[in-house]
Amino acid sequence: MTKQLMSGDQAIARGAWEAGVVFASSYPGTPATEILESLSHYQDVKAQWAVNEKVAFDEAMGAAIAGVRAFAPMKHVGLNVAADSFMVFPYGGTNAGFVVLSADDPGTHSSQNEQDNRYFAKFGKVPLLEPSDTQEAKDFVKLAFDISEQFESPVMIRVTLRLAHTKGMVEVGERKTYPKKPFVKDNLKWVVPPFAKAHRGPLENKLHALEQFSEMFPENKIEKGTGKVEYGVITSGVIYQYAREVLPDPDFLKLGMTYPLPKKMILDFCARYPQVYIIEESEPFLEEQIRFWGVQNVIGKQVFTNMGELLPELIDQQMSGHIAPNDFSKEIGIPVRPPMLCIGCPHRGTFTALNRIKGITVNGDIGCYTLGGLPPYNTMNTSFEMGGSIAHAFGFESAGEPRAVAIIGDSTFLHSGIPPLLDAVYNNGKTTVVIMDNATTGMTGQENHPGTGKDMHGKATKRVNYEELCRALGVGFIKHASAFNPGEVEAAVREAIQWDGPSVVISEGPCVLIPESKAAPKIAFTVVAEECIACGLCFHTGCPAILESSETYRASEHQKARPKAIIDPEVCVGCTLCATVCPPECIVRVDGKPWGA
Amino acid sequence: MTHNLLFAGVGGQGVVLASEVLARVAASEGFDVKQGEVHGAAQRGGAVVSHIRFGERVYSPLNLRGRVDLLVAFEQLEAVRWAHYLKPGGVLIINDHRIEPTYLNAAIKYPANPAEFLASKSFRVVELNATRSARELGNERVSSLVMLGAASKFIPLKDESWQQVLGERIPAKLLDINRRAFAAGRNAIA
Question: If we measure between CA atoms, which residue out of A371, A345, A306 comes closest to residue A507?
């Protein structure tokens, strides 16, 4: 047995491979992205990016019902997209093993909300496992597949970002393969709607059997402490590691299976101590169930926050009274460094263009371009969830906002933007949609999608043609523009908003992080200082390569002297955006040649 | 005994690479190791912090504020941002290098002299100019290995383990300059 240093995501992928998974599908989303990426490097697994999480879930569900082990990992909000499938699958149950993994993001490091997806398991009547470290992450995936086949039920695993992104030591094993189970046609079982009522009772019976299983499940276990304290602790997931770090003394009931809970085991544990602390991050998922049984001597969310991460020092502070030091911001300025668009990012040009058009409202979406809701752009006026922008814009229009423009990335458009655009056509809307096509799924790490013409392994596949697609939906106005030329984008959008019907502008410019952009020659631009009139328009593009010069300029004696611009030649990638907005045209290539030469 | 370390810098400085090398070195000596950071959003130019803990048995992957033994700051402002994680008497290695946040968020100014401020606290502050050393070696990008070399003087792991992992982790054509950067960092610590 060899031990390897692996991230939680890598360990999960390893577990899926060892468990004999044949098919895996997902849509990129932090902190789950690296699970499928890592799994795609193993032989004997068909791993693929789906257009969205519901499609990924359904593909894996189909594969499992047909008889092979299948896996659908996703970020927490991905499960919202797949919820329709998730909720009904348990009624029919599965044939071969099926595991769905939710990677939650307490603290919203890279997400639009906090949601404790353990509730999904209870809501959907799906058994739930919560690993607490990388070793368990790998092992629990294998256990999950066994439970799935034993009970013919989908099984859910829930991790959080701190487990997904933490590297730890993992003892790896070998892959076990399973022959495909035969798919036996049985409409009573697999054609759910007509027999839904008939499934209800057996589903409850299955849950009852799973509760008995949970009582005996070795990963629900009591761990002795030093015995120096009189209270016990119930916990699960990575919070077990935090709590054990700061609390060596109490006995712990560490729950590896958190739905259905081992009721008898928990009642016995709670009866042993005058007080039991339920330490869990996010919502009182365990606590609510335990209190529902009438247990009185538990302490949970009245002392532990349900907001953000339940960091180890917060547990320590509550349990031991140690006050952790705060940062030094009261004594010294600590400016923030928010994430920002890369130098050479095409989205800047689209924001610059939209900001020139007065009287529009801009409904945004989820991606790197969500930063367009922040200074210096402030272009975007709404952004909530994947694929919302287009229907939000139709809603704005329906409420009487005169000019609603939706902006949506290429990957997000394909994820969930097509139905709302079809709807805008069907219902005679006038919504203008700007597809910000950067030829990749930018934010999560440049994954391929149907618009890139390559599959997840980089192999050529059919490439979707946005123009043909939109035309087929019934859109009458479609224009292409270069995202690095705000003038072009501006003109296209101005024309689009005049169109009597839904209109689409495809603002094209590749992400600087994709291989094609990285391989392209980069010739920096420079400011001809004598000609700079310090108008500041290049600063407004928000490009971090453009800096204030110590030289100033003023148009007349009555005006304030303002700094001219300089460009950091080390970091400029020559995207041309600043040059396109420069009124005196004094931003030029360092080699003096014309653009594109 | 668990060793608690924190590496902090700005996206693109090699914080994650350096901390992963350290984690591998500790693992190669048979320690239990946990190392982690947040990644995934458009993090270029953003603050990056990586937690590394190793010992016989490590529970929490995250360090606790006020308990870190060694903070390796690849950039001055980031030293200030994370210094409260250090325990009293903890070691703070600061790269004498400033990366201004973009002019966009200039409401709070970059502190004038972070190292001087931090030296007035109960930490042992060690300054070096890893960025300049790296530039002298011919590639600014190896500054992370200079920082790692300096940090290695305060971390009880064997020299041969570091060399072994560098050999495994760094591509062959970049290995020599990275080894020299690591040595420059080590030599910068008296």
Answer: A345
